[in-house]
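quick one
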Amino acid sequence: GHHKATSPSHNESGRATSDAPTATSSKHAAIQEQRLNLPITKGKDALIREFRENDVTVLLGETGSGKTTQVPQYLLESNLAGNDTIAVTQPRKVAATSLAARVAAEQGVKIGTLVGYSVRFDERCGSDTRIKYMTDGMIVRELMSDPLLSKYSVVIVDEAHERSLRTDLLISNLKVIQRQRNGNGTGENNYSKAKGKEKEKATNPLKIIIMSATLDAEKFAKFFSGAKVIYVQGRQHPVTIYHSLQSQTDYVDSAMRTFFQIHTDQPPGDVLIFLPGQEDIEGLEKSVELFAKQLPQACMEVLICTMYASQAPGQNAKVFNATPPNTRKCILATNIAETSITIPGVKYVIDTGKCKEKRYLARNTGGGFDTLMTRDITKSSAMQRAGRAGREGAGFCFRLYTEDAFKAMKPSAEPEILRCGLASSLLQLKCIDQDLESLDLMDEPDRDSLISALKTLFLLGAINQKKELTPLGREMAAFPLEPVYSRAVVASKELGCTSEVLIIVSVLSASSKLFTDSSEHRDAISESRRKFRHSSGDHLTILNVYKAYQDITKSESKSGRKAWCKKHFLNERALLEAGEIREQLVGTCQRAGIDPKAEGGEGKEEEVIKSLAHGLVANTAFLQPDGSYKQVMGQSVVKIHPSSTLSERKTPTIMYDELVYTNQIYARGVTSINKGFLAGLGALSQRQA
Ligand code: ADP
Ligand code: MG
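structure w/ magnesium ion:
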């Protein structure tokens, strides 16, 4: 029985009535007014009609027209979702949480009640949740426990144009699931036939809505054998675009100069600056702040807001507050603000032309891995970015690249499945008896990355020589972690040090880095961190830092903790996030029958390192006579990153978390390991295979 009772706090239309507080009712009225003014509102009835009539709908519309926030509410209010949940998937965590918060406010409910979200390591949902914003990764994970996604009567695949790996996997699965739940066009439900489950109650039918901001609907429509395509009229005002005359070498500096030109010369209106990532955002934030202090009195104030994936949720919400009088908002954002999140009030856009993109580096490495690289954006992104300036009136876009550079851009991004590591997805698919080779995908991944993923899983013992899932693989898949780290957690069970391994793995899985690393202050940094240092290397050093922070937490106030982190050049956000991740993993361990409290304790450091080495077996290297390291399973020659606690020492064998490509290849997150033990590991995975 997947059906849940309708919550008593909702009336027939599904809208909450009882818990809308009167104190905030004027705010609520203002929000309702904003809702009614969205471009999509005019098409509401027509949309509902289309959704009712079609099992699959492809909905296209300009960013900011109201697709993501309104469509789920229309479905709920018109009772098209029955008593089940509406899932709205997003490629990005921040988009899922922030849009859920907005829709909860529009419905006048607390987040986690009627409207909730579910993202990796963070969930705010209850049994009465009917609209659930979630990452595409979370819903793909849910396939493992609920292969027909029977909780959901509607799945809205949002931001489909981004073609993230999980979105592609979801779309493939939805096609099959819909056939199983809705029947093969005979109107007959063939769930029991398809799954061979005896006398299962007929499942609820599934509706699929694909939403996209760009005009590439055909591919989706074709994939769903000619699904209905609907366009929502946007309300785009003209945007004047300026290109720079020469190419800019320092886009951060150039963005700053452009911002202050706008600020001193142009009429009011907020400025949105697109940057590739957090480091650049933080850098620019500092320099804008400094420079703004030196402005003449007559100038408007500058209010800086930032928006990127790993920032604290509260910080993200700030960007939506109304700009105070005599102030210009300067919003520094990654491509999150390109199509997933619309920030009101923007009249000027500064586009650096750069973004970060995940790339899989399979070449010459044992298992291969993903790395984030700063790259030129595509034409389609450039158009989207410019469009953000014209949502409320005529706007201006300043491109920090030449017109020729624009013309040379690729039309649109390659689907992620063609450029990302596949090991983690492949493992999940194996758990539901699927395979990247047999799945009906919109684009097939290439042979090399497929082979590389199989190799990684085989090395970790997650699949055998016949490419079949092993019991170990199934155990690993229960953890929302990269396979290398879930392998370490599983290994820690036998070795009796799960508590330590969970801490290390949590810190490594956090979206921000624990150690703030700047080459300028390297000596001061290394001095202040000396007391955490463990002779074996970076992994146990992380453990020491985490434990020291836990101790501090017992005695220090919030500001004391903050000062402590600052003094030691540590990123507190990473520690807080790691704490949350650890809690989630403790839960997973308990469900998986692993004692999360099992602590190796003093003198058992070797066991912790061994556990980690089970996962990082492909990321190992031997010392060469010239002082560099040669990969055990690949051909690359690497050096230990200068930020590592081992950078000054020459240990015979190392394992590392990742490789960083600059002018040479650096191994980061390095620990010294026992060579003999490494040989044992190889034998071990062979045996398991
Ligand atoms: P689309 O999906 O078509 O791009 P959305 O539904 O995301 O459009 O956005 C509709 C409107 O909701 C936008 O004007 C946006 O500014 C507003 N909005 C979204 N999130 C928030 C928020 N947290 N606070 C205030 N307004 C928001
Ligand atoms: Mg949207």
